[in-house]
Write a structure and sequence with these properties.
Blueprint (H helix, E strand, L loop, with lengths): L13 H5 L4 H9 L14 H7 L4 H8 L16 H7 L3 H9 L14 H7 L5 H9 L15 H5 L7 H8 L14 H8 L2 H9 L14 H7 L8 H9 L14 H8 L3 H9 L14 H8 L2 H8 L15 H8 L2 H9 L14 H7 L6 H13 L14 H5 L5 H7 L16 H8 L4 H8 L14 H6 L2 H5 L9
Helix pairs in contact: 3-4, 5-6, 5-7, 6-8, 11-12, 11-13, 13-15, 15-16, 15-17, 17-18, 17-19, 19-20, 19-21, 21-22, 25-26
Pfam families: Ank, Ank_2, Ank_4
InterPro entries: Ankyrin_rpt, Ankyrin_rpt-contain_sf
Keywords: ANK repeat
């Protein structure tokens, strides 16, 4: 079981908000030095944490009163507080934010407005949409990056046409399509909402169409979504309508490649193989069903596909093998299985990175146990942790991006040259000086032999770079020890 580290800032910690703190408790926590404005590395802060925890409006108002928590502050994925509150149906907070200048025309990093993000999240409270529309949101114009309007995004979550009728009164056509030619049936197929699929068919909605990318409802259904994959009953229903399960898009994707990533049901894998899809057929990026399964699926599915897989060491267009992607994304047991079945450990990707790079680059404090288990396997199979990676980076230079001293200490045993420069002329100490927010890692690197006198190709010293680091300035860190 993965351990989830608590946030040192209590105002961003789920455990703190799970206790349903009162306004006075929150105020006292601020007085103790916990920042109400500071963002995590993922872009979340005290206000977003309060919104997710459904905290009382007065608490959110208090947190919004601090300089640095403007109503239009950008948080995770470029989203303002209006995105989070509207998508969660918090009408009271939505109205407060709108009354205090929250903009409805901000587009997040994924290409969505607050209206589109709210619909994509499955929000069915029409008063939320009324509030956004009253401030200028336009349901007929606002769309996702793929050209999907609010109704296309919302309908997979519905069980009847009540909300559909609402959007139609606002001018949204039930027969509308996105930029690729996908309508409500394809979007609903992705969610596997059989109840709504059947109602759409009964309503006369076109279902057996090929979009501009060569895809149909089977492509959408096979994609599944975050945390779920569709069952065999969905595919049987689609086939009963005369839709072709053996379909390939213009980018070479077929349903088998998609389900290989997400289904836990061997019957689904076998269904598409029986429909004539080649289990070794790669998409345009060079990924086969086996490679996709090794990246993200469980061992049972991987072993099942292995029976049909012709080459365990096949690499995709990026030079990544099944083992490469398993090291980066999957569990130690999958890595062990591939190694035991003669997967090449010396595989190098198209940019010059070996398996040790993928291990270190995937390091996550929430999943340390998995990291160390995979590291043990790679060491046992003699993967070279001292090898230069892409752009002449050592693993130290890859690891420094994580700003985790435990990871740096893990690399000590490999005796990697700590003073090597990458193609940009930067050592790990240079990179640390530009990224850290305190002196802990800098002093650790010096203890390990990092040379503070080395300069960049622009003749900048480590001290110079530290002087330009805004985080060190903000935290009033004395960097004279770098002179």
């Amino acid at each position: 079981m993965n351990a989830v580290a608590q946030d040192a800032n209590l105002l961003r910690d789920k455990a703190f908000w799970a206790e349903k703190p009162t306004l006075e408790t929150v105020k006292q926590t601020v007085k103790l030095g916990h920042s109400p404005t500071e963002l995590t590395s993922s872009g979340f802060d005290a206000v977003t944490s309060a919104i997710f925890a459904k905290a009382d409006l007065e608490i959110v108002k208090y947190l919004l009163s601090f300089k640095g928590n403007d109503v239009n502050k950008k948080t995770h994925d470029g989203r303002t507080y209006l995105f989070w509150s509207a998508s969660r149906g918090n009408l009271e907070l939505v109205n407060h934010l709108l009354e205090n200048g929250a903009k409805i025309d901000i587009i997040d990093d994924k290409g969505s407005s607050p209206l589109i993000f709210t619909a994509a999240g499955g929000q069915t409270n029409t008063k939320i949409y009324d509030a956004l529309i009253a401030k200028g949101a336009n349901v007929t114009i606002e769309k996702s990056k793929d050209g999907a309007n609010a109704l296309l995004l919302l309908i997979p979550k519905l069980s009847d046409f009540t909300i559909v009728d609402y959007f139609e009164t606002k001018g949204v056509d039930l027969k509308s399509k996105d930029n690729h030619g996908n309508g409500v049936f394809n979007y609903t197929a992705k969610s596997g909402n059989l109840e709504m699929l059947k109602k759409l068919v009964a309503k006369g909605i076109d279902y057996n169409t090929i979009n501009k990318n060569g895809g149909n409802a089977f492509i959408f259904a096979s994609q599944g979504g975050r945390g779920y994959s569709n069952g065999i009953e969905v595919y049987n229903y689609l086939e009963s309508l005369g839709i072709n399960p053996n379909v390939t898009t213009t980018n070479g994707t077929n349903p088998l490649i998609n389900v290989a990533s997400n289904t836990k049901d061997i019957r689904v894998i076998d269904y598409f193989i029986k429909k004539g899809i080649n289990a070794n057929k790669a998409d345009n990026e060079g990924n086969t069903p086996f490679i996709k399964a090794a990246q993200s699926n469980n061992l049972e599915i991987i072993k099942h596909l292995a029976k049909l897989n012709k080459n365990i060491n096949l690499v995709n267009n990026d030079g990544q093998s099944a083992l490469t992607l398993a090291v980066a994304r999957n569990k130690p047991e999958v890595v062990a299985y591939l190694l035991e079945n003669k997967a090449h450990v010396q595989v190098i990707d198209a940019e010059g990175n070996n398996l040790a790079y993928y291990l270190v680059n995937a390091y996550n404090t929430r999943n340390k146990e998995s990291f160390y288990e995979k590291a043990k396997l790679l060491k046992a199979y003699q993967v070279d942790f001292t090898a230069k990676q892409s752009k002449n980076n050592s693993l130290y230079q890859i690891a420094i991006g994580k700003l985790d001293i435990e990871l740096l200490k893990f690399l000590e045993a490999f005796k990697i040259d700590i003073n090597t420069k990458n193609n940009d002329g930067l050592s790990v100490l240079h990179l640390a000086a530009m990224k850290v927010e305190d002196d802990v890692i800098l002093k650790y690197l010096l203890e390990q032999g990092a040379d503070k006198s080395v300069v960049t190709e622009f003749e900048e010293t480590v001290f110079d770079l530290a002087q330009e680091n805004e985080l060190l300035k903000a935290n009033a860190v004395d960097t004279n020890f770098l002179k």
